[in-house]
């Protein structure tokens, strides 16, 4: 098996043997065979990736991402499956994908602009309409958050700036924000702006960024 790996804070573009294009986000790993079988194309993902799948009606493309399996013929979509996140999700930009899994007994077919998220803690699956561009903007060196929970923002900032962040779980799930972040923006300026929007403060201790509630 072949392995494609990205370090913290980096992203890379790869082309698989079938000409499928893969953008691999920070701290991610993709596993695939040197030669795909005659009947299917199987890969495994840990982390986050965006796929532009080469069309082949006779060889469905399968992404195995933890508790979620995704089957496509030819389409553009993003998958996120980080071990330290409590969910696995996929967002469809173009085409159609079929999603199954150990806790998704009935296959779900997504249309463009739909997101599917499987929650590992409660084993619930949710499908909803989203702006797919917000979920793949990292390819263009942007991070777009649309009413995102602070916990998800923190997770992305960790990858984006390659830093350790501690955030109170009570505020991580209860506070939300919307903004767009560009690669290279000063982290301190972003944090200052954050404190003007939501009731939090931040401080550094032992090279760890701490975000806490304002009492």
UniProtKB/TrEMBL annotation:
Record-linked Pfam families: FecR, FecR_C
Record InterPro entries: FecR, FecR_C, Ferrdict_sens_TM
GO molecular function list: sigma factor antagonist activity
Residue stretches making up the Protein FecR C-terminal domain: 143-208
Domain FecR protein: 4-97
PANTHER family: PERIPLASMIC SIGNAL SENSOR AND SIGMA FACTOR ACTIVATOR FECR-RELATED, PROTEIN FECR
Name of the molecule in the record: FecR domain-containing protein
């Amino acid at each position: 098996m072949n392995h494609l790996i990205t370090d913290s804070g980096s992203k890379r573009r790869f082309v698989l043997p079938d000409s499928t294009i893969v953008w691999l986000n920070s701290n991610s790993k993709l596993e695939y065979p040197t030669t795909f079988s005659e009947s299917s194309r199987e890969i495994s993902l840990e982390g986050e990736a965006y796929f532009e799948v080469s069309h082949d009606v006779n060889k469905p493309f399968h992404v195995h991402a933890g508790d979620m399996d995704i089957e496509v013929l030819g389409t553009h979509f993003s998958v996120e499956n980080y071990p330290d996140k409590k969910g696995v999700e996929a967002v469809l930009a173009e085409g159609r994908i079929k999603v199954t899994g150990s806790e998704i007994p009935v296959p779900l077919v997504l249309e463009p602009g739909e997101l599917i998220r499987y929650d590992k803690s409660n084993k619930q699956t949710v499908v909803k309409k989203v702006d797919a561009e917000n979920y793949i903007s990292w390819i263009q060196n942007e991070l777009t958050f649309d009413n995102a929970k602070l916990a998800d923002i923190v997770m992305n900032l960790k990858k984006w700036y390659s830093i350790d962040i501690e955030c109170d779980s009570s505020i991580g799930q209860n506070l939300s924000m919307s903004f767009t972040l560009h690669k290279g923006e000063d982290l301190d300026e972003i944090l200052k702006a954050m404190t003007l929007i939501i009731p939090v403060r931040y401080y550094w201790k032992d090279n760890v960024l701490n975000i806490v509630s304002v009492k």
